[in-house]
Amino acid sequence: MQAVDFGADSGRTASIRTTEPEGRTMGDEHAHEPDTTVSSGHLVEVVDGVYAWIQPDGTWWLNNAGAVTGTDGTLIVDTCATEARTRRFLDAVQLATDGAPVRFAVNTHEHGDHTYGNSLLPDEAALIGHEAMRAHLLVDPIFDACPPAWEPVPDWGAVTRRVPTIVTRSDLTVHSGTRRIDLMHPGYAAHTEGDLVAWLPEERVLFTGDLLFVGLTPLVFAGSVDGALRALEWITGFGAEVIVPGHGPLAAAADLPGILDDHERYYRFLLELAAAGRRDGLAPLEVAQGADLGEFAGWPDAERVVLNLHRIYADALGRPMDLMAAVVDAMTWSGGPLTTHVCCLG
Predict the structure, then answer these.
(1) E strand or H helix at 127, and its extent?
(2) For an engineered disulfide with 198, which of 25, 57, 207, 286 has Cβ 3.0 to 4.6 Å away?
(3) Residues 57-73: pLDDT tens digits?
(4) What DSSP state is assigned to residue 190?
(5) Which one has a higher pLDDT value, 33 or 58?
(6) Per-residue pLDDT at 8
(7) Burial of 292 (0-12, 13-18, 19+ CB in 10 A)
(8) pLDDT band at 35 (very low <50, low <70, confident <90, very high)
(9) By mean pLDDT, which of 141-145, 159-163, 282-286 is the weakest?
(10) Residue 301, SS3?
(11) In this predicted structure, what is the pLDDT of residue 5?
(12) What are phi and psi of 330, to 5 degrees?
């Protein structure tokens, strides 16, 4: 066991067990600082039998996931974007849990970095998701053919589309022996229409999915910026002691107010930008090109400002967002394809 302090001045040290990153080679065309190759993914036991899968550096397509084990088997929280990354995650869980059977899995939302590896789950595992999440994953065009919006263009590997067979419109509780896992929807669109968190009330562990991005630019193009802002107070209400975000490092209770404050400032910044842009008759890309990102300029994936503005504009006009137009605008803002390390081997 290794003692790791979850956050500066957190006043809390947790005993965790990790699988250390393997040796890696850096033969790819672009640099990995910090290491973002497949081998950098690692499993952290945050409390006894509860695991977080952390993939540095949390940028495009590099998500976190998790596993909860009880006497009746394991529940998996999300998969990963590619075959290689999902296999590494599931193999690490099997090793850490002494081969406990995977009985259930849940997708926190439909985005491919959390779902494209679903088909690698055991056939007998019951897959759970929100009703809206299932509907969106069924028609996700990026699964079939990823556009050249990212560089290198991701290759998902030998995976097939697998969607939940059990859906909820609100909340659902899963038990593994005496361990309780509450799967809960905020009640409105936030990161997406179909967000679920996984909450362990006894252990005070919260898997937030992409309601939280720690140290990275949040992405809200499939949901609602207003809803994402509302969800911050909802997250506070859990009183979690350990927080596993959808992207970025683990957080402790003492870290959470600062993380939520970062999100709130960013969302209010977006809403103010959009309001001024609409008043001046500017398109989302024009607003983003003229904006001073200030404190948010240094956050990875800063080009998401364009996608988020498209979402605010679409909601204000009461029309669907044109995803491909938004992605093209984000590429224009960035000066080319968006960087991802999801297929970098190591």
Answers:
(1) strand 126-130
(2) 207
(3) 999 999 999 999 999 99
(4) S
(5) 58
(6) 32
(7) exposed
(8) low
(9) 141-145
(10) coil
(11) 34
(12) -65, -40
Task: Reply yes or no: is the peptide bond before residue 57 cis, omega within 30 of 0.
Answer: yes
Q: Cis ω on the peptide bond leading into residue 34 (within 30° of 0)?
A: yes
Domains contained in the chain, CATH given: 2-261 (3.60.15.10)
| Residue percentage of the chain with pLDDT more than 90 | 87
Burial of 72 (0-12, 13-18, 19+ CB in 10 A): middle
Beta bridge partners of 244: 207
- pLDDT (mean) for 94-104: 98
pLDDT at 167: 98
pTM over 0.85: yes
Contacts 24+ apart (CB under 8 A), 91-94: 92/19, 92/41, 92/42, 92/43, 92/53, 93/43, 93/51, 93/53, 93/67
Residue whose structure tokens are 């600062």: 258
Q: For residue 126, what are the contacts with CB-CB under 8 A and spacing of at least 6?
A: 103, 104, 105, 165, 166
Partner residues linked to 252 by β-bridges: 242
Spell out the alpha helix ranges (H) of the chain. 83-96, 112-115, 131-138, 141-144, 225-236, 256-279, 284-290, 304-317, 323-334
Planar angle of CA 11, 13, 14, nearest 5 degrees: 145
Q: Give the separation between CA 55 and CA 61, rounded to whole angstroms.
A: 10
The secondary structure of residue 54, as a DSSP letter, is E
Contact status, residue 179 vs residue 189, Cβ threshold 8 Å? no
Torsion of CA 328, 331, 333, 336, to 10 degrees: -140
Region label for 43, one of left (φ > 0), alpha (ψ between -120 and 50) or beta (otherwise):
beta
Given a contact cutoff of 8 angstroms between Cβ atoms, the answer to whether 45 and 54 are in contact is no
**Amino acid at the residue 242:** V
CA distance 124 to 255: 38
Q: Which of 119, 48, 114 is nearest to 81 (CA)?
A: 114
Query: CB count, 10 Å around CB of 76?
Result: 29
What does the alpha-carbon distance between residue 145 and residue 154 come to, in Å, rounded to a whole number?
9
pLDDT score, position 18 = 36
